[in-house]
Design goal:
With 378 residues, this protein is of the alpha/beta class. It has nine helices and twelve strands. The protein has two domains: 126 residues, no CATH class; 244 residues, Metallo-dependent phosphatases (Purple Acid Phosphatase, chain A, domain 2), CATH 3.60.21. Helix 1 packs across helix 3 and helix 2 packs across helix 3. The termini are far apart. This is Metallophosphoesterase.
Amino acid sequence: MSISMRIVFFIVIVVLHIFIYFILFKNISTNPAMKHLGKCIVIANLLCIIFFLRFYHGQLHPIIYTLMSSSIGIFWISFNIALIVCILNWGVYLGFGAIVLQHWQTAILVVAWATILLLIGLSFYINAKAPVTVEQTITINNLKQPINIAHLSDIHIGTLMNEKKIAAIVKQTNKLHADIIVLTGDIVDSYSNFSIKAIEELGKLKSKYGIYYVLGNHEYYYDTHTILHLLKRIGITPLVNQSMILRNLGINISGIADLVGERTVFKDNSLKPNLTKALESNQANFPTILLSHQPKIINFLTNEKIDLVLSGHTHGGQIFPFNFIVLLDQPFLSGLNQFTYHDNNAQIYISEGAGWWGMPMRLFSRRQINLLHLIPNK
């Protein structure tokens, strides 16, 4: 993120915290001490967000990480409730007048704060649950035989996603007895020396015909080549603008580097996305599965022959209603979707992710492991 964008982001976050204070704290009590307490809470949350974003790529103690990162989820939930309260206040004011609004104000704020606390608690509870296994049948043209693919995405190995949690994900995935396992990016979200034990747990994944991995945007912020080397060493095949032709299954598995590699800040040309290179060795009469971390890769397709795109990145919004902001950047949010590019019809399946980004919180989205049943189109 450029310096100018960081300044704009900081200003927006400050303004929204001021909005939260005026809507949720300023009128909750006439006692000055309560108002000062409200200011302290809002300022503390703002400082926690700044601290977390500043030191996110370092190695924080798990307790500090949890406290700091959770400030983002608390802010987002509080802002949306404050927005609803603001709209409700204006509705009462315009419909019944200032006296009625003043009479109802305390009750409205009590309900608002009870809702915020409930949603915060619920978001921690949902995220703490084990990933759910989501199965999907997908029809593929020219497929020789049925293929089962276990799809993992957005695990975000790091401070809180340690080797114990990875071991549980691996165990759950292995029970699916998949023909192929694919990892569609943001698997590692820390420097490899901090997370080597957790990364090595991925080496216990088992499939009949291989495990294939593509970079997500988060791997670019660390020692990317070391991460790729570690994954290759434990039996996972990285596909950085490359393809694997599985002749016994009659299918091409292609992988493209993440779109974030196009940014000028990342000067390694070998990590830039290149569709042409990723697909150039494919067998023409085999269906092609393209692994791309970001779903919006479909916006860059021209005349390439793609049957199915497998992606992650969106986290299903992670904390509602962030879903709608994600859809400003990505064409789809989750699940199986049909799309057309240059008169070609194709499908894309988006995983909501087996892990989480930042705060260990999810609201109206679930951590998931996806099992895709590919069947021939008869």
